[in-house]
Amino acid sequence: EEADVFCEEETKNLPSGAEKRELVLFLKGVWLMEVLRRDEQAAQTFQPLRYPGALYRLGLLHEQGRGGLEQDAESTSRCYRQAATSGWINAMYKMGILHLSGMGVEMDPAV
After folding, report:
1. Nearest-CA neighbor of 69 among 59, 77, 78?
2. Is-contact 104 77, C-beta < 8 A?
3. Stretch 102-111: mean pLDDT, rounded?
4. Which of 67, 60, 48 is nearest to 90 (CA)?
5. Per-residue pLDDT at 62
6. Interior CA angle at 75 toward 41 and 2, to 5°?
7. What phi and psi, each to the nearest 5 degrees, are found at residue 92?
8. Is the pLDDT confidence value at 1 over 80?
9. DSSP assignments along the chain, one per residue
């Protein structure tokens, strides 16, 4: 799969361990967001986002302004929403928090 090849190439010189696994998840999220950004058809046909954990982690990085990314409420909510739609429970929780605060989404205190 294209994402696996991309991640393997980017991380081939790193020793295995938790940091490498986290980087691979991040890179899969970056790869996926780039594919979805440049290809509208891919965004519509991409099977229920195969890397919800990567999208969730990418959302965290956008939310906290870490990993070379700036804080961005819209990107944060988009990543969390896509991960939540794919069943990632932590992303569902984060979407609830975003709706309570109105960060990147319409504020909805009823959530």
Report:
1. 59
2. yes
3. 75
4. 60
5. 85
6. 45
7. -60, -45
8. no
9. -HHHHHHHHHHTTSPSSHHHHHHHHHHHHHHHHHHHHH-HHHHHHSTT-S-HHHHHHHHHHHHHT-TTPPP-HHHHHHHHHHHHHTT-HHHHHHHHHHHHHTSSS---TT-
